[in-house]
Structure formats: C-alpha cells, structure tokens
Amino acid sequence: MKFTDILPSRAGPIGLGLTASGLFTVLATAMAYAQETTTEVVAEAEPTLSAGDTAWMLTSTALVLMMTIPGLALFYGGMVRKKNVLATVMQSFAITCAMTIVWFVVGYSIAFTDGGSMNAYMGGFSAFMHSGVGVDSLSGTIPEYVFSMFQMTFAIITPALITGAFAERMKFSAMLIFMVLWSIIVYSPIAHWVWGGGFLSDAGVLDFAGGTVVHINAGVAGLVCALVIGKRKGFGSANMAPHDLTWSVTGAALLWVGWFGFNAGSELAADGLAGAAMMNTQVATAAAALAWMFAEWIIAGKPSVLGIISGAVAGLVAVTPASGFVNPTGALIVGIVAGVVCYWGAAHLKKMLGYDDSLDAFGVHGIGGIVGALLTGVFADPAINSAGEGASIVTQFYGIIATIVWTAVASFVILMVIKAVIGLRPSDAEEQEGLDIALHGESVA
User: Fold this and answer.
1) Is the domain of 301 the same as that of 173?
2) 360 with 412: CB under 8 angstroms?
3) What pTM value is reported for the model?
C-alpha cells in the first residue's frame, strides 16, 4: 500500500479540498497504514533475545538433564539385581559425561547445521566444537548456547535409555565405545532428519519432542543390542527380580517431573503451546499408568508397583511426539492406548518371541514411541498447533520405518565391529559374580 492510495476520490471545501467525511477517512486510513507498515518492519527485523523464553529454556534444560541423572539411573538401578546396581548407575553417569563431549565436538553440528548437498540426511561440520557460536548468537529468541545445551540433554538420555535392554551383561568398555559411535552415526543424523531440516521434516513427519528421534530410536537400538549380546545367564530359571523398587519409584517420579522440560521445553518458548504440551504430558502419563495398572490387575490378578511406574513412563514416551500437536482429549486417548499396548509388549511380546530385554527398553520406549508417533497423525489438532494441519498416519508411518531401518542396521554393524575387536560381554564367571565387583571393583553394602 502507498500513502497516495488512501486519498479520497472526491474533494470538498475544507482545508486542502477535503470534505469533513473525507478528512476523517484520510486520518483513519493513515493510521491503519502506519500500523501495517510498523508490523511489516517488525516482522522483517532480526530475532531478538527474550529473557522469558531464555529463563524457561534454562529451566527446561536442567529438568531434562535431571531425567538421566539421577532419574534414569535410579529407575534402572532399582530394577536390576543387587550385584549389578553400581554398574547400572555407572552407565547413566558415564554416558552423561561422554555424550556431553561428543555433542559439543561434533553432534550438534551434524544435527543442526546445513549439510549442503547431503542436507537431507545430515548436517555439516561448520559448528565443529561449536565454532562460530558465541554469547551473542541466537537460535530464535534464545541464545544458541542454550539451544545447544537443551538439545544436548536429549542426546544424553537417548543412548542412556538403550542400556536398559542389555542391563547386567555388557562390558563397560564396549558400552562406552558403542554409545560414542552410535551417537555420531545414528542419533545426530536422525535428529537432523526430523528437527534439522532433513528429509523427514520435509516430508511432514511430526515429532514435537522426540518420539521418533529419542524413543523409537533408542528402543529399536536396545532390541538389536539384546538380540546380538544374547540373554543373561540363567534367564528364565534364575530369580532376576528387582532389588529395590523404591529406587525405581523415585526414579520414575524424577522422570515424570523432568519430562515437563522435555515436552513443554521443546516449544523453545514460554507461551501457550508450551502450556498445552505440559497439560498433555500430565494427562497422558496418568492415563497410561492407570491403563497399565488395570490391565495387569485384570490379567495377572494384582496391580504391581513396577507395573504402574512402567505405565507412567510408557505414557510419557507416547505423548512425547504428540504433546505439542494434540489437545488434552487426544492426549488422554494416547495415554490409555500406550498403557495397554506397552503392557502387552513388556509382559507378553518378549515372552512370545523369547528375547531378553532386561528392563523393557523396547517394550516401553520402542513400542510406546511407535504408538505415540502413529496417534499423532490421528489426533493432531490445528487449533492447538497449525503445523498439525494435514497430519497423516501414513506420513508418520514413513518416519517410523525410516528410523527403524537406519537404527537397526547401523546399530547391528557397530555392535558386530566392537564384538570382533574387543568383545561385548564379560566372562561367564564375571557375569555370575556381578558387574559391580567384576568391572568396577565395588559393591553396595
């Protein structure tokens, strides 16, 4: 619009040939023009730092880090036998340290920079060791360092989740090497596919906070690990009950609270959509916990503590991709379906197929992630998030299959290389003695 466009076509005797009504028309239209011009200038301006968004993202980052240590460490640590408690907790702590360095050096660059001709599949190396990132660098309305730190916590918890599948039977050295290679070869590229402008993003795959990137990814990798490494000694005959479910309840509670940073933080802003994601997270988690509990109560005769906390985690997993796309009613349905389906996967599927997924990493994270990703395509509500308009279960399935294939193949290759070089399992005697003493020379009192 040009200012000359607002001049009336008729002139009168007032002032510069304007009628009274014509003058009011000019003034009103001029004000509208000024407002429109100001809006266009603001829209074209460079992003500016938001103190509110930054404060929320700093908080979210701390919450998500808490999910791994102490959350996941306690959750998994309580479910293994007493002789393997320290080894299990050690895995979460060591992975936190190792993935921090991997992400700082190369992971962030692969996930979130432009990969040129390979950009559909992975980013480049322009941000190697965070080159070019400074205190004044912004990612939207928050500092780029904060954005990278937030994403780092996702890169930390994803490989840590895998450890539940092979708990009590993998060498510490092999585990560390696997996780470093897996983070670079599998996690960072898949994060780029979905969140960094890769081919799944272009295809319209919806994943608000990591149902595909984190949970399907970790769950499938865990299943591959369980199959390649094999069953625990005495599996099916020895008593492998959790040594202290109080630890696991505490860990589950920390995961639940930390997940608000995981899901609501993924909006990267302190706004209404973050609030919707938080509400959806709470509703789905509670629904899934109750659904698992009642399913177990009906089938097994008693509602177990392990069941209700596993159901809660299944709900957290399933609502992760959907949290910023569905309304609370959709989240309720996602939670109920996830609780029942994941109970079946953890309690019955692995028995039917005979694999040893020690702590149900695939049963909860793999299956829960698939359920959540598919239902995001069903219940995405444009009134909650306009990006959900045109959501399709077919598109979601495409993203699931792409993730499963790459994760399964790459994880298998990495494991076989490590197995050939240094081996994956401790000796039978060390496994019988327990990994706490055999690998770390320590034990709980």
Assistant:
1) yes
2) no
3) 0.89
pLDDT band at 5 (very low <50, low <70, confident <90, very high): very low
Let me know whether 188 and 219 are in one domain.
yes
Please identify which residue in the block is written with the tokens 């959790």.
Answer: 242
Q: How far is 186 from 184, CA to CA, in rounded Å?
A: 6
The range of the structural domain enclosing residue 102 comes to: 56-440
> Which pLDDT belongs to residue 9?
43
Q: Which two tokens stand for residue 271?
A: 């706004």
Which own/partner contact pairs does 424-429 have at CB distance under 8 Å and 24+ positions apart? 424/170, 424/171, 424/174, 424/228, 424/229, 425/169, 425/170, 425/171, 425/174, 425/229, 425/230, 426/169, 426/170, 426/171, 428/233
Question: Which residue is listed with tokens 């670079």?
Answer: 184
CB-based contact 171:86 (threshold 8 Å): no
More confident residue, 434 or 18: 434
Output the pLDDT for position 304.
Answer: 97
- The encoded tokens of residue 410 equal 């790459």
CATH number where 302 lies:
1.10.3430.10
d(CA 424, CA 149): 31
Query: What average pLDDT is seen over the chain?
Result: 92
